[in-house]
Write a structure and sequence with these properties.
about 750 residues, alpha/beta, eight-stranded mixed beta sheet, 23 helices, 24 strands, about 20% strand, globular, nitration, coenzyme a biosynthesis, nickel, nucleotide-binding, At2g17340_3_helix_bundle
C-alpha cells in the first residue's frame, strides 16, 4: 500500500497526513498516455483501471557488414532505441479521496480521444454525475458479476502465484498455488453485503448457482449494533483481539468434553452467542465481534462446501469486500472449509481480489483489442504487492486509512504457454527453494542482492557512457530496488512466493523502469567476440579426440561457458579484478570452451532456445542469430545444419536468468511439438538449479551447471565451483543416444 501525496485536505473533511511525500504522478503513472478507463466503486473503496502506452529504451544489436570487417572490429553494434509498449494500471483507494483523484486525472489527461469510462460496482450510480462532470467522460455501466468473473479469469491466467491458501501462525502465512494450465471449472464465492456463489466453466460460461443473505453486510450491521463501531475495518480489528469462547457455547460446555461417538471435539462451537444469555454478565466488544465473525464465516464456509460437493468442484475461490486480505477473516473461512470437507477442499484466496471488478470492466471496454489474445505479466517495479493488514504480523504495515494500492501489468510481446514436455503441468513448480518458507535462505539471498547493488549500478552507468543523466537514473534505480528488498524482507509474500527468480525479475523490472534495458551489453559483446576467435581452433582440437574423449570435452566445455556469470559474486569479483580472465583460465578448473555443435552431432535436429530479452550477461536470441550467422560462414557443418533446418534458433519468451517452463514462447512450444523433441538440456545455475532442479519431463533431460555461490554449494553438500550434472529418464521411457554416453553423477 502506498500513502497519498502530501498536500492540502479533502472536501470530505479527511485531512491528509502531512508526513506523506509520495507525489501523485507516482500513483497515477503514465496518465498522459491513458487511452481507456474503467472504474469499480464499492461501498468504501474505488478501483480505477486505465490502459496506457509506455515509452522505454531497448537495446538493439545489428550485424556489421563483415565483408569490410577489419581486425579488432566488434561482431555487432549496439544501439539504444525508443519503443512503445502497452501497460495496464490498476489503483485502489478509499472513496473519501475520489474527488481529489478525479481532479488530478482531469488535470493530467492528455488523450482527448477517450470518450467513455466503463463502470461497475454499487457506487457507480452514486458517483456517475461526479465522474461525468470531472472527467467529461460518459459513464457506461457494466454488469457487476460479469465483470467480477472476467477479472477473476484474467488474474488466474496471467499472474503467477495469484491464488493462495492462508495458514495462520505459519512462518509464511501465505501458501501460494501454482497456476493450473486449465483454470476451469471453479467455484467463486463472492462475499459482499450478501453472498453469491458462481460456477465458472469457461471464459463466457458461468451461472449463479446459489447464495445467502448472510454475508459481509450482516457482519457489519450486527457488529455495529453490538459494538457501536461503525467502520468495517475497525470491527475486524476488534474481532482480531477478541476471544469467542467467552461468548460462544462449545461442545465441552454442554458435555464436559468431546462428543466422541459423533466425532465432535470439545472446542467446537455448539451454539454461536450461546453464553450471551447468561444473567448479569457483560461481554466485551472484542469478544462479541469475534463470535459474530466466526458465526458468519462458518455459515459461508459450510455453504461453499455444500455447493462444491454438489457440483463436484475442488477449486473454490473467495473474494469480495468481506475478505480484503484480512488474516482473521481468511483464517475463519479456511478453518470452516477444512472442517466441513475434512481437508478435501481448500479455501483459496486471491492476491488481487479487490481488483476483479475493475479488471473485468476494463476488459469489457477493450474487447475490440481482444486483450485475452496476449500474455500479460505483473510489473513488480510499479506494483504495491500484497500487504498483511495485521499490525501484529507486519509491523511495517501502514494504517489502511489514506492508503493507495497499485497493480501494473505489462503486455508481453509474445504469447506464453506450457512446455509440451512437462510431465504434469498442473504440479510443476519452477523454483527449487521458496524463500518465503525458509527464513535462513531468505535473509542470505536478500543480503546477496543488496551487496550486489553497487556493481549493478556501476554496470548500468557504464552501459550508457554517452548519456550524462545515466548516473542520476542509476541512483533512482538503486533507491527503488533497495526499497523493494526492504519490503520483501518484512513481507516476503508481497509478490507471491519469494524466490531467487522473483528477486532477479524484480531487479530487471526496476532496471527497465529507469531505462537500463541491458547493463551488460558491452560485456556480452566482448565475450562473444572472444568466443568467436577461439571457434576454429577448438573445433580442430575436438576433431582430433576419440568418441569418448569428445563427449567429456563437450560436457567440460559447456560447464566452462557457464562459469562466466556476472550474476554470481564469486565470478564477478574475479572478472572485475582480472579483466584478462578468459577461457584459458577456465581450463585450469579442468573444464574447457563450450562448443555445442561438432561434426559428430549433426545427425540430430537441434532447437537452441535463448532469452527473448536481456538479463545479466546471458545471450539473447538476436545476439545468437548474429553469432550463428558468423559461425556458419566459418564452418561448413554448421552452415549445412542451419540451411537444412537441423539447427533452429528460437526465442524462449524469457527475460530472466531463470526459466519458468510454464511460460514459454508459444512458437517454441510449437517447434518442440512439431519436431518431436526427445531430449531437453537445461544449462546454467539460474535455469537448472534455482529453477527446474526438480522439474519432471516426459522425455530425457539433462540439467547441468557450475555452482558459483559458496552458500548454495554448502546447502547442496558441495564446494564452490562444484558441478551439477543431472541426467534423468522418465519411468518406462526408452533412452535415445545418451545411453551410449558414460555419465558420472557428481
Amino acid at each position: 500500500m502506498t500513502e497519498l501525496w502530501s498536500s492540502g485536505s479533502l472536501d470530505s473533511g479527511h485531512s491528509m497526513d502531512k508526513s506523506i511525500t509520495l507525489p501523485p504522478d507516482e500513483i497515477f503513472r503514465n496518465l498522459e498516455n491513458a487511452k481507456r478507463f474503467a472504474i469499480d466503486i464499492g461501498g468504501s473503496l474505488t478501483k480505477l483501471a486505465y490502459y496506457s502506452t509506455v515509452q522505454h529504451k531497448v537495446a538493439k544489436v545489428r550485424s556489421f557488414d563483415h565483408t569490410a570487417k577489419t581486425e579488432g572490429d566488434p561482431l555487432y553494434e549496439i544501439s539504444m532505441q525508443e519503443e512503445m509498449s502497452a501497460r495496464l494500471h490498476f489503483i485502489k483507494f478509499e472513496n473519501a479521496y475520489i474527488e481529489t483523484c478525479l481532479d488530478f486525472i482531469k488535470d493530467h489527461l492528455v488523450n482527448t480521444d477517450t470518450k467513455v469510462i466503463k463502470a461497475t460496482g454499487g457506487g457507480a450510480h452514486k458517483f456517475k454525475d461526479l465522474i461525468e462532470k470531472k472527467l467529461k467522460l460518459r459513464v457506461d455501466k457494466e454488469d457487476e458479476m460479469t465483470c467480477l468473473i472476467k477479472g477473476c479469469n484474467f488474474v488466474l491466467r496471467n499472474i503467477t502465484h495469484e491464488a493462495f491458501v492462508y495458514v495462520k501462525h505459519a512462518d509464511s502465512e501465505f501458501r501460494f498455488q501454482n497456476t493450473h494450465p486449465d483454470i476451469f471449472p471453479y467455484l467463486l464465492i463472492n462475499i459482499g453485503s450478501g453472498v453469491s456463489i458462481f460456477k465458472v466453466e469457461s471464459e463466457d460460461t458461468f451461472e449463479r448457482v446459489g447464495g445467502s443473505s448472510i454475508g459481509g453486510g450482516t457482519f457489519w450491521g450486527l457488529g455495529a449494533l453490538l459494538t457501536k463501531t461503525k467502520r468495517f475495518d475497525e470491527l475486524l480489528q476488534l474481532a482480531s483481539k477478541g476471544q469467542h469462547t467467552n461468548v460462544d457455547m462449545l461442545v465441552k460446555d454442554i458435555y464436559g468434553g468431546s462428543y466422541g461417538s459423533l466425532g465432535l471435539t470439545g472446542d467446537l462451537i455448539a451454539s454461536s452467542f450461546g453464553k450471551s444469555a447468561t444473567p448479569d454478565k457483560e461481554f466485551s466488544k472484542e469478544d462479541m465481534a469475534k463470535s459474530l465473525l466466526h458465526m458468519i464465516s462458518n455459515d459461508i464456509g459450510q455453504l461453499a462446501c455444500l455447493y462444491a460437493r454438489l457440483h463436484n468442484l475442488t477449486r473454490v475461490y473467495f473474494g469480495g469486500f468481506f475478505i480484503r486480505g484480512h488474516p482473521v477473516t481468511m483464517h475463519t473461512i479456511t478453518y470452516s472449509i477444512n472442517f466441513f470437507t475434512k481437508g478435501e477442499v481448500q479455501a483459496l484466496f486471491l492476491r488481487h481480489e479487490g481488483y476483479l471488478g475493475t479488471i473485468g470492466a476494463f476488459l469489457k471496454g477493450a474487447e475490440e483489442d481482444n486483450p485475452n489474445q496476449y500474455s500479460w505479466g505483473e510489473n513488480y517495479a510499479g506494483s504495491s504487492g500484497l500487504m498483511s493488514t495485521s499490525p501484529d504480523l507486519n509491523p511495517m504495515q501502514r494504517a489502511r486509512s489514506g492508503t493507495f494500492d497499485m497493480l501494473e501489468m505489462d503486455r508481453l510481446e509474445r504469447q506464453l504457454v506450457n512446455l509440451p514436455l512437462l510431465q504434469d503441468p498442473s504440479s510443476y513448480i519452477p523454483d527449487t527453494v521458496d524463500l518465503s518458507e525458509d527464513a535462513l535462505a531468505r535473509e542470505y539471498w536478500l543480503y546477496c542482492f543488496e551487496e550486489a547493488l553497487d556493481g549493478v549500478v556501476k554496470r548500468a552507468v557504464a552501459s550508457q557512457p554517452d548519456l550524462p543523466e545515466a548516473a542520476e537514473r542509476a541512483e533512482k534505480f538503486r533507491h527503488k530496488y533497495q526499497h523493494k528488498l526492504q519490503t520483501l524482507r518484512h513481507q516476503p509474500f508481497a509478490y507471491g512466493s519469494l524466490t531467487v527468480r522473483s528477486l532477479l525479475d524484480t531487479r530487471e523490472h526496476c532496471l527497465n523502469e529507469f531505462n537500463f534495458p541491458d547493463p551488460y551489453s558491452k560485456i556480452k559483446q566482448g565475450e562473444n567476440d572472444m568466443a568467436l576467435k577461439y571457434f576454429q581452433k577448438a573445433v580442430k582440437s575436438l576433431g582430433e579426440l576419440s568418441w569418448e574423449q569428445r563427449q567429456f570435452a563437450l560436457v567440460r566445455g559447456l560447464l566452462a561457458g557457464n562459469v562466466f556469470d556476472w550474476g554470481a559474486k564469486a565470478v564477478s569479483d574475479v572478472l572485475e579484478s582480472d579483466p584478462e580472465f578468459g577461457f584459458e583460465h577456465a581450463k585450469l578448473h579442468k573444464i574447457s570452451l563450450f562448443l555445442p555443435l561438432t561434426p559428430c552431432y549433426v545427425v540430430f535436429q537441434v532447437v537452441l532456445a535463448s532469452n527473448s530479452s536481456p538479463a545479466l550477461n546471458d545471450v539473447t536470441n538476436s545476439e545468437l542469430q548474429i553469432l550463428t550467422e558468423r559461425i556458419a560462414a566459418m564452418d561448413l557443418v554448421i552452415q549445412s545444419a542451419v540451411k537444412e533446418d537441423r539447427l533452429t534458433l528460437v526465442q524462449s519468451g524469457s527475460s530472466s536468468p531463470c526459466l519458468d517452463l510454464s511460460r514459454l514462447d508459444k512458437v517454441l512450444a510449437g517447434v518442440v511439438r512439431e519436431r518431436h523433441v526427445d531430449l531437453v538440456i537445461i544449462e546454467g545455475m539460474g535455469r537448472a538449479i534455482h529453477t527446474n532442479y526438480y522439474a519432471i519431463l516426459s522425455c530425457e533431460s539433462l540439467k547441468m551447471a557450475v555452482i558459483k555461490n559458496s552458500w548454495l554449494a554448502d546447502r547442496l553438500g558441495g564446494k564452490l565451483f562444484s558441478v551439477v550434472f543431472k541426467y534423468e529418464v522418465p519411468p518406462g521411457h526408452k533412452t535415445t543416444t545418451l545411453d551410449h554416453v558414460p555419465v558420472t553423477p557428481s
